[in-house]
Amino acid sequence: MEIVIGTKRWSTWSLRPWLVLKRLGVPFEEILVELRQGEVTTAEIGKISPSKLAPALKDGELVVWDSLAICEYLHETFPEAKLWPDDPALRAVGRSVAAEMHSGFQALRGECPMALDAAPSKPDLSEATQKDVRKIVERWSQLLQRSGGPFLLGEWSIADAFFTPVASRFRTYGVDLSGDAKAYAERLLATPEFLEWERDAIAEAKA
After folding, report:
1. CB 8 within 8 A of CB 14
2. How many structural domains comprise the chain?
3. 157 near 96, Cβ under 8 Å?
4. Are residues 125 and 64 in the same domain?
5. Which domain, by its residues, includes 27?
6. Which whole-number Å values give the CA distances from 15 to 8, 24, 70, 92, 139, in the listed order?
7. pLDDT digits over 6-29, tens only?
8. Is residue 207 part of a domain?
9. Full-prediction pTM beyond 0.85?
């Protein structure tokens, strides 16, 4: 398998399926394309991805070009890895929050882009972004209470991959968390998979 990803310090979309691949422990080739280079970026990604956007997964002749679709494909290809829980109700809720993250929280995305090479700061966030933060924290609390943790659905899942970039944003922009939400965000940023990505992102910024 091959995965096309964008610049590691910026690309939240690439991070999510990359984390899942790393969690699976299956061999894959990483094709890194530098973002924010205009038509050069588009052309390079377009060599594999029909959408000309990262990420895209190539498995033989098959190309899957959406982060959530890639994760679902990996779940179906490696069912023994249990990327979603066996319990159908918990799985449905997990898919709901992953889809909500995939399509929502536009204020947070726009005002607090992922920047793994940036020094932490504490800007004044708009009310729209603060509303997004409150909703995310509410989701985390609901699921952690329901599953008992330590991750949203108990064991690590695709839902956690989708919220790992959010935890990095909260850290970068000085979002105050407490209790279960704080512990959960710290847990996401301490996984060996994320730490590997972060090391690469920082090295990338210095290159």
Report:
1. yes
2. 2
3. no
4. no
5. 2-81
6. 7, 14, 12, 23, 21
7. 999 999 999 999 999 999 999 999
8. no
9. yes
